[in-house]
Amino acid sequence: MKLNQLKDNPGARHTRILVGRGIGSGKGKTGGRGVKGQKARTGVALKGFEGGQSPLIRRMPKRGFTSQRGCMSAVNLDTIQEALDSKKLSASKPIDAAALIEAGVIYCAGEGLKLLSGASPLKTKANFVVTKASESAVKAVEKAGGKVEILPAKVNKLLREKKKAAK
Fold first, then answer.
1. What gap in Å lies between CA 124 and CA 79, rounded to an integer?
2. Which domain holds residue 112?
3. Best label site of 27, 31, 62, 99, fewest CB within 10 Å?
4. Taken in order 125, 94, 87, 108, is the CA torsion positive or negative?
5. In a domain, 64, yes or no
6. pTM strictly above 0.85
């Protein structure tokens, strides 16, 4: 085989269609766009427009609402155990939202902190100050010799505001 005998496979190369080069080309006049006017131009967005009648999205009834309540941060006991093992958290001080944020376990407390039991049990004796806690998490903490103090969400919010004012 020689270089001058090489060929593409049949159908591998397509001839480019020249658009808008006269009616005889088959793609003349409207250039394959089918219409003249707004839809023939670039940058047209007519999604949802139904020719002047009220669009479907506006005809459908609106139901439900978006909750304005802030979300609550949840943290598992096994995550806390990892932080205690790596010395990011101290078990001698009460573990609350501020301590967890400082240790980098959670990003922000939101409306409060919820304590959940994880896959592995808590081994270290520690005291927790949280907004909510699951029953299994409370049992796991008490089994390790610690305590769980549950604060109302408003008190937790006031404590955060006081800490911000102190900084």
1. 12
2. 73-166
3. 62
4. positive
5. no
6. no
Tell me, yes or no, whether 110 lies in a domain: yes
* Residue where the block lists tokens 């007519």: 46
User: Average pLDDT over the chain, rounded to whole?
Assistant: 86
CATH number of the domain to which 155 belongs: 3.100.10.10
Look at strands 147-150 and 127-130 and give their pairing.
parallel
Model confidence over 65-90: pLDDT tens digits?
A: 877 667 788 999 999 999 999 999 98
Please tell me the total count of domains within the chain.
1
The answer to whether residue 112 sits within a structural domain is yes
Question: How would you label 35-72 residue by residue, b for 16+ Cβ within 10 Å and e otherwise?
Answer: eeeeeeeeeeeeeeeeeeeeeeeeeeeeeeeeeeeeeb
Contacts of 163 (CB under 8 A, 6+ apart): 98
Written as one letter, the residue type at 111 is E
Nearest C-alpha neighbor of 81 from the set 73, 89, 93 = 89
pLDDT of residue 155: 63
CA–CA separation, 121 vs 124, rounded Å?
Answer: 9
